[in-house]
Amino acid sequence: MSNGETKTAKETKAEAEINANKENGQECGCEDVKGPENEVSSQEGEIIRLTKEIETLKDLLQRRQADFENFRKRTAKLQEDYKKLAIRDFAYDIINVNDDIARAIEASENLTGQESTDSKDSFIQGIKLVSKRIEEILNKYGIEEIESENKPFNPQYHEALEIENSEEHSEDTVTKVYQKGFKLDEHLVRSAKVKVSKPAPKKSEETDENGKCS
After folding, report:
1. Contacts of 27 by beta carbon, 8 Å cutoff, 6+ apart
2. Residue 99's closest CA among 70, 130, 121?
């Protein structure tokens, strides 16, 4: 059939279908159609991407855990070093005091007769100075004596070795210190061993034979 000939109804219908397919982007070779194979390929790509992301996060987490463990070890070592340095300084001061005590003992052992009698006061005074020096060292490190005598009994700081009843006190009161106690801030170093006076129990009212108060 030549170009000048009239198109049949069948040809006209075929051309209309081709044109409709072109408009809808469905003509073969003009648009990519997503079939089952393309969907599978897309899912595999997403899985690969997520897997890589998970591996990256796992690696980051492992590095953070390693950093934290190293930090914890460094902190523990620093704390231990600080503790040892504090003990070292304290020990140095106490050793010097102990040297003074040793020299005083040695001097007392070399004293005899009248010389010993004449030097007794000096020896006692020397021991008192050593005791005072020890107290100064304790204060230097923040260790202070617990005030106890004539103070309310506090089981946190006091250990009662003796208890008595007394009408002179309205509450449990420390009346004698057998051994001094010490604390560092609010932390107990050693409790004070004390004698405690408790308020005497009130006397019950006397009653006569009829049960009336006398």
Report:
1. 18, 21
2. 130
Contact 192, 155 (CB under 8 A): no
Q: What's the CATH code, domain 33-141?
A: 3.90.20
pLDDT tens readout for residues 26-56:
444 444 545 566 777 788 888 888 899 899 9
What does the DSSP assignment read for 95-144?
A: HHHHHHHHHHHHHHHT--HHHHHHHHHHHHHHHHHHHHHHHHHHHHTTEE
33-141 and 144-199: same fold? no
- The CATH T-level fold of domain 144-199 is Nucleotide Exchange Factor Grpe; Chain A, domain 2 (2.30.22)
Closest Cα partner for 176 from 201, 145, 146, 197?
197
pLDDT in tens, 6-32: 556 666 666 666 666 555 554 444 445
